[in-house]
């Protein structure tokens, strides 16, 4: 408001110069007025800088608060919700925050704050030059209607260009992720064509909308000049009729710019409001989604690792029913194999046991505790999981290993790597544990990355280890070594292995067969192996002889 009031200063100065200085020759008055104007201008400069800073701070606060809420929220979203959005969609949500910030601290906020100036200018025009007031009112009306007309994106709460830019981003991210696959399979032309058509659509829409906005801007500019001419014309007629003075006309010419400028500026700033509005709706939807429970303040004792499923059903949001009223017990201790055909629901069962998915119906207990009460952080301490596909962070190997257990000393890291079989190949690398890997572990083979994933799991030393096809990328020798290790770990821990391997299955104490119709059969390997593989356990163990003839407990296993 003070800035708006100070905005009247040039007009009042002009009016006084004409009425008191030019017509009466008052040089002393002029000096005093110039001194006064300079003081007020200094005040206005100070106020404007304060206002700009307040807007900047508001923008930065919104950015900081929403970014943190989004990052915390994302990491506390249940796995199913996380999986629903791709990495590029999450990235776009972080970019949406920028749209909110630029709306608050950008030109739109400033022109909205300047709107009171328009009202004050109108009042002053009414006092000093009432004959031109109707002209300015009509001009305001026309500019307001046009500003609203051009604000179609705000009215429909949809920015088509952003929709298309997001689709394009998603396509680009997918091509970047699949760059090697595209090269290997040789269908890069097809992928490029589909990307190009998305790009052309976005470019055409962006070009069209930018043209519309340029049009709005240029039209407003010309209209402002036209209204200024209209004010001078009507003012000149009013002076001839002796209804107002020349000084008033000169002042009113400046005032009309103050009254109409903020409205004309709205037209070119609408887009940032439309973008911020869209971004806010999207962010709000994500921030309102339910999160996993907070970490417990009271820490229950480390579980022994006995699972009990009571009438557990699970279906995906798509409606696919993976498990239906399954009841079973598992552990504590020992190796337990989950078997079944592709797509039967083995990984789904493993994720339920790890607490990564919540049953749609029924309950899962670990020891005597209902798992639903625990946060992911609590469960992560007790139930370690090696998923079918895990991500390896770029940077030195040692840093990524320390990330999972920052308190682990070097000895513990060596032991975990020896157990997983990673130590031997890391030692052969020229940089050893300091070797820097690329994104996703680029620079190592799939089997080597698998061993590093196992090392991370061992480093956490959970009560329960859930491994989804741990030996899928391992050579025979490495698989044998891993099986020996798992046998020994299973003396004190519960080891659950999702597998297609007869060797692994033959070592289990108990086998769970996920049938694919929502049911799970289970029994001893003596009963299940002939049914599933058509071989007796004895024959199977003979095949996996190296694993079963594990020597006395390895020293490394004792230390985890
Ligand atoms: N996020 C998801 N949304 C919808 N359906 C899913 C999702 N993840 C898996 N499914 C479906 O659930 C079923 C079970 O999947 P799951 O990954 O548990 O199979 P699996 O037995 O581990 O298979 P594989 O041996 O091939 O690894 C599959 O038919 C799959 O299509």
From TrEMBL:
GO molecular function: ATP binding
Residues of the ABC transporter domain: 307-541
Subcellular location, principal: membrane
Key words, A-Z: ATP-binding, Cell membrane, Membrane, Nucleotide-binding, Transmembrane, Transmembrane helix
Positions of transmembrane segments: 29-47, 118-151, 222-241
Pfam family, one: ABC_tran
SUPFAM superfamilies to which the protein is assigned, alphabetical: ABC transporter transmembrane region, P-loop containing nucleoside triphosphate hydrolases
Subcellular location, record wording: Cell membrane
Domain ABC transmembrane type-1: 1-275
InterPro entries: AAA+_ATPase, ABC1_TM_dom, ABC1_TM_sf, ABC_transporter-like_ATP-bd, ABC_transporter-like_CS, P-loop_NTPase, Type_1_exporter
PROSITE patterns: ABC_TM1F, ABC_TRANSPORTER_1, ABC_TRANSPORTER_2
Membrane topology: Multi-pass membrane protein
Record-linked PANTHER family: ATP-BINDING CASSETTE SUB-FAMILY B MEMBER 10, MITOCHONDRIAL, ATP-DEPENDENT PERMEASE MDL1, MITOCHONDRIAL
Name the UniProt record assigns to this protein: ATP-binding cassette domain-containing protein
Species annotation: Acidovorax bellezanensis
């Amino acid at each position: 408001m003070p800035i708006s009031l100070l905005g009247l200063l040039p007009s009042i100065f002009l009016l006084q110069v004409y009425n008191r200085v030019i017509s009466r020759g008052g040089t002393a008055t002029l000096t005093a007025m110039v001194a006064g104007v300079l003081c007020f201008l200094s005040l206005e400069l100070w106020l404007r800088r304060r206002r700009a800073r307040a807007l900047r701070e508001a923008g930065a606060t919104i950015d900081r608060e929403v970014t943190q809420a989004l990052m915390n929220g994302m990491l506390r979203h249940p796995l199913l919700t996380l999986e629903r959005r791709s990495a590029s969609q999450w990235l776009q949500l972080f970019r949406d925050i920028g749209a909110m910030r630029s709306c608050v601290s950008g030109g739109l906020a400033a022109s909205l704050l300047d709107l009171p100036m328009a009202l004050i200018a109108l009042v002053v025009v009414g006092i000093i030059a009432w004959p031109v007031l109707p002209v300015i009112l009509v001009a305001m009306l026309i500019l307001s209607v046009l500003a609203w007309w051009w604000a179609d994106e705000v009215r429909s709460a949809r920015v088509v260009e952003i929709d298309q830019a997001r689709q394009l981003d998603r396509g680009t991210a997918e091509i970047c992720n699949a760059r090697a696959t595209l090269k290997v399979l040789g269908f890069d032309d097809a992928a490029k064509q589909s990307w190009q058509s998305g790009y052309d659509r976005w470019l055409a829409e962006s070009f069209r909308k930018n043209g519309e906005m340029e049009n709005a801007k240029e039209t407003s500019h010309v209209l402002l000049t036209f209204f200024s001419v209209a004010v001078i014309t009507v003012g000149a007629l009013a002076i001839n009729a002796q209804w107002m003075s020349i000084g008033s006309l000169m002042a009113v010419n400046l005032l009309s710019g103050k009254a109409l400028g903020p409205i004309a500026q709205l037209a070119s700033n609408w887009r940032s409001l439309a973008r911020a509005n869209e971004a806010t709706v999207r962010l709000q939807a994500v921030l309102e989604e339910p999160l996993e429970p907070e970490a417990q303040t009271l820490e229950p004792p480390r579980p022994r690792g006995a699972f009990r499923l009571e009438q557990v059903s699970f279906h995906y949001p798509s409606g696919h029913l993976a498990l239906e009223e399954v009841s079973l017990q598992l552990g504590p201790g020992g190796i337990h194999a989950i078997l079944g055909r592709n797509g039967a629901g083995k990984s789904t069962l493993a994720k339920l046991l790890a607490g990564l998915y919540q049953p749609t119906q029924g309950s899962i207990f670990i020891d005597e505790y209902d798992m639903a009460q625990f946060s992911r952080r609590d469960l992560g301490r007790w139930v370690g999981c090696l998923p079918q596909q895990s991500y390896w962070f770029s940077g030195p190997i040692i840093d990524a290993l320390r990330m999972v257990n920052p308190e682990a000393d070097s000895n513990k890291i060596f032991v975990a790597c020896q157990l997983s079989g990673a130590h031997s190949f890391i030692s052969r690398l020229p940089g050893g544990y300091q070797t820097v890997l690329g994104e996703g572990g680029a620079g190592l083979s799939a089997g080597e990355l698998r061993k590093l994933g196992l090392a991370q799991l061992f480093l956490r030393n959970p009560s329960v280890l859930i491994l989804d096809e741990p030996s899928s990328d391992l050579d025979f020798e490495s698989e044998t070594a891993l099986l020996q290790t798992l046998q020994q770990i299973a003396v004190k821990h519960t080891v659950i292995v999702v597998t297609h391997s007869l060797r692994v299955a033959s070592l289990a104490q108990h086998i769970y067969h996920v049938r694919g119709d929502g049911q799970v059969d289970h029994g001893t390997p003596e009963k299940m192996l002939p049914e599933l593989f058509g071989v007796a356990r004895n024959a199977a163990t003979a095949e996996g002889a190296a694993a079963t003839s594990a020597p006395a407990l390895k020293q490394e296993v004792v230390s985890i």
